[in-house]
């Protein structure tokens, strides 16, 4: 189960998370570990992919404090995923520690699922920034194309 006050990263995804950040010799597209995790959670949620975090990274990146997400304005993603998954607004309650643990758990699993998707998509890539940009562009193109199509099936009863 999720650790109270921290977001954990799976050990098998730790190297990817480090490679996606800029700093320590890496030239990744994200400034912080928290940015990577939020992007991965959004990607996991988009593809409805939740993967349990079994083996936790103890070193870099160690579990990330919730204050880090609050400081950069990403805590709303954790809350939004919690509401969406449970369909219960009470998950936002600050009075029960179990609500925070459940929100963190949901967020961690979506982030882990998103990191799995990224591992697959980035396999063999030299420039992660370029590959992620291509992923986002292709998704945008697919969305625009779907909006432009005239669907006659809506007129059938």
Account of the 3D structure:
A hairpin with a 2-residue loop joins strand 2 (22-23) and strand 3 (26-27). This protein is 54% helix and 5% strand. The chain is mostly helical and 157 residues long. The relative contact order is 0.18. The model has no long low-confidence stretch (mean pLDDT 87). The chain has one domain. Strands 1-4 form a two-stranded antiparallel ribbon. The chain has a two-stranded antiparallel ribbon with strand order 2-3. The radius of gyration is 17 Å and the shape is globular.
Q: What class, by secondary structure content?
A: mainly alpha
Q: How is the main sheet built?
A: 2 strands, antiparallel
**Rg computed from alpha carbons, rounded to a whole number of angstroms:** 17 Å
**Helical content, roughly?**
40-55%
Amino- and carboxy-terminal Cα gap: 47 Å
Say what oligomer this is.
single chain
- Sum up the overall morphology in one term: globular
* Strand percent estimate: 5-15%
* Structural domain tally: 1
Largest beta sheet: strand ordering: 1-4
The total count of strands amounts to 4
The low-confidence parts are none
Average pLDDT, all residues:
87
> How many helices does DSSP assign?
6
Query: In sequence order, what are the helices and strands, one letter per element?
Result: EHEEHEHHHH
